[in-house]
Amino acid sequence: MKGEARQSGFKLADHPRPAIAFTAVIYVLLGFLERLPGVVIPPLLYFVALGFLALYLMPYVLGLPSGRRSLRDYCRDIRLLPVRPVGRNVLLGLMLAGLALSSILLASLLTGHYVFDWRTVPALRWIKGLTRGIWEEVFFRGIILVLFMRVFAQQRKAVFWASFLFAMVHVNVMALSVDMIADVVSVFFIGLLLAYLVLETGSLLSGIIFHYVYDIFVLFVQNTPGADEPLASILLHGSLWVAIALGALLTRYVVARWPKREKAALAPGP
Question: Which residues contact 155 (CB under 8 A, 6 or more apart)?
Fold first, then answer.
């Protein structure tokens, strides 16, 4: 028996494989909005378009991932709700981002070519970071992961293929190189960690925090002009992969020691 066989009453939601492909294609196509002429308007337009797709079209029109639902039920389906315990989830996201960024910074320092330059963190990057941090998590660790979990009975397979698809949408076929392939492999491992994070915490919040902070500062910590490219690539990616493995262990540790509190059951009447 494969993943969940529940019938939603809505055709696309009842066929998770086409639904996954449809969701991924729409997400990629909307990315062209960011390439329109202009500096601020295109990324803002992209952010709003993805928000409209995620919070209106998906639950009310397309019925993904689980049929047409109220916004609250939809957010629970994709783990956008609940966010509690907020303190744990925010702290965990910040800790994982700090771990990943620190590992890359250490590797950059080891190259001997690291340059401290705040210009690598322009104001526009904070806006674009919102799109990646929020909507990539909603689509890939929310909607698409739920759909993959209906395809596969084994959760590990669902996580693997959701992370693989996440990596594939980051491939630039016009600029294929060894370094770009290493970047995609790193994205795959990050996707694994983010999927593990949402399943362990039961919330997208930690992943959103991690993704947002990481995307804003990753160019700042890996700014190594003039470094030997093969050596720098090995150091940067290797250190990141170690940090991702440590991040999974950290996630398990924190969740085990700061569990989500369930509401106390009402006492029975006399």
Answer: 149, 199
User: Tokens standing for 184?
Assistant: 């995609």
Q: Which two tokens stand for residue 179?
A: 């370094």
- Residues 143 and 65: beta-carbon distance below 8 Å: yes
Does 92 map to a domain? yes
Kindly report whether the peptide bond that precedes residue 59 is cis, defined as omega within 30 degrees of 0.
no
171: containing domain: 80-257
Does residue 138 belong to any structural domain of this protein? yes
Question: 3-state DSSP call for residue 265?
Answer: coil
* Structural domain contains residue 142: yes
Which residue type does 92 have? L
Burial of 25 per CB tally in 10 Å (0-12, 13-18, 19+):
exposed
- Of 78, 70, 53, the residue nearest 146 (C-alpha): 78
Q: Exposed e or buried b for every residue in 58-67, given b needs 16+ CB within 10 A?
A: bbeebbbbbb
Residue 27 and residue 44: Cα distance in Å, rounded?
15
Consecutive 10-residue averages of pLDDT for the chain (270 residues)? 54 94 97 94 97 97 94 97 96 98 97 96 94 97 98 96 97 87 96 98 98 97 91 94 98 94 45
What is the total count of domains within the chain?
Answer: 1
The SS3 assignment for 193 reads: helix
pLDDT for position 268: 42
Q: Is residue 40 part of a domain?
A: no
Tokens found for residue 9: 């009453």
CA 93-97-98 angle, to 5 degrees, is 115
